[in-house]
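Quick look at the format.
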Amino acid sequence: MPQMATASPAAIPTHQARVDTVWKTAIWLTAFLPFIQAIVTWDYDGRMEGMWFALRHYSFPAIIGEIAIIMIAIRSGMLPSTYMKSLSKTAMAALLLWAIFALFSSLFIADNRAVSMMTLIRFALHGLFLAALIHMVRQARLFSPIQWLLAIMAGILAYIAVLTLFALTIPDPANFPWMQRLPSATNIRQIANIIAIPAIAPFALLFFSNGKHKWSYAAAIFALTLFIAWSGSRGALFGMVTGTIGALILMRRIPAYSSIAAATASFFCALLASLALSLPTGSFGLFRFANKAQDITSGRVEIWINTITEIGKSPWTGHGAGSFNVNMHALHGIDFNHPHNFILQFAYDWGIVGGAAILLLLALFGLTIVRSAAKAPLTGFAALAGFLTLLTISMVDGALFYPLTIMMVLAMVAPVFISNLHQDTK
């Protein structure tokens, strides 16, 4: 009888080293996607036309990175069909229902079919991206949640560092279009939203890791909060606070009081320090909040009302993803890329049925995170707080419209789906 082939002892460490390299490569590449996006879209003269606008608006550099991570996972043995089969019957039905309505609206309803189909494909890529991250974590016997979150923290700190460098080196700051033209995004608020979600990583490390460098996590919270406060983004600040507090309440866990004190002190010291920073325009900084007291919604109510009116014109099929800006500008003179509310965004894009289907998927996704969070405090808090931050911001902005915010929360969430991470604070 032929003997069964067995792996040599030397081959096992080699294979394990290769597996560990895969997940580390994936998370470091993911963590630095905002940094890469900023570098690729870098320029000094505020160009808003053609390729430069497309690179920022559609986040092409980040999406290429997302595709690269999916390909790495497939090469290491990931089968997308396996993750499809693992979905519950309810989730599978909702996914198929959304796909049918989204495909129909993109092919037959949307005026710009190319943009609509590209947006639809991008959402499908996000699903594959999450599967890729989960696959890599499951493969790694030596997976470290702390290293995972440290990579995310390092990536977002590098992002604000390069944005700060850009702001300090603009040749003609007085005439620069500050609101629309910092690298990587379509406006400064979107940049703040990109920062707010991975900013949860140092909170998680400070609250639930057993590391000896908690002062560095507090310093990271200070730096990230300082940049968000400088940007004047209410949604990002509120989302970060709501996500942090909401996750602790849902998890029913209280971190060490010293950790809570350090996080709180870092946060409020950053708010105070931001008041001393030089501001490019009156649209930046914490004082912007007071200036907006007479119109606290910044025109969002008008956008929401007009969006509901347009949803009523095509309630079942929607208008096609990615069509909001062109359509609403033509009909109502509104120059926004999305309705600043993810519920209205999904209903406008894919109709009531398609929108309800993806909202159901989102609810099931959140419920899974809540149930899993109790098993592992570090990864559980990071996933839950990141998800709640995303939802909070998405109620008043486009965090569920732009790719980078979605990618960042998926990176925060992925480890919580691994059942063997019961001791994740080491």
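Next, a different chain entirely:
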Amino acid sequence: MKKGVKITLIVVPIVIVVILGATLGGTLLYTKNNVSYTVGDTVLTNDISRILIGGFSGHIETDTPLEIVNNGVYDIINLSITITITGQNFDELATLNGIVLGHGVNDLGTIPKGESWSDVLEITINENIAILAIQDGEMKISIDIAFKLNLVLFKTNVAYNEIQIEEWDSPFDF
């Protein structure tokens, strides 16, 4: 076999692999840069009422608007949005600091390339209502967005995190 043919048989496959790798890497980078998300301000509403002497009943609802836009060249798969609400900066009498007040996981599936998803995700807080009825503080709302980009032969993970702090003013003053 001639030397030129041997070199060609070695070099051409290497060049093809490099070109395919660069193309895949370029389209992956393009897709990551063209997937965007928007998290709107969380709105807190409460339905807490006094029952008997010193007792409280009800719940607190959080509504968080979200939108994810996939303008890349690959589908988003296994989309999951987790919202965790923890207390912070509450009075020293009955601390809710660091306590998980609400938690929800939303497995939303797939967003095909060129499409978007938007909705308002709701978390209902039913625990610690007696303390929340009379204590002021803050609610730390952590929104975790995780998904995979489906690159035909393999998948790559992508994750975003957003933190919001919402003031909590107790509905009953003592």
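DSSP finds two helices and eight strands in the chain.

See the schema section for token definitions.
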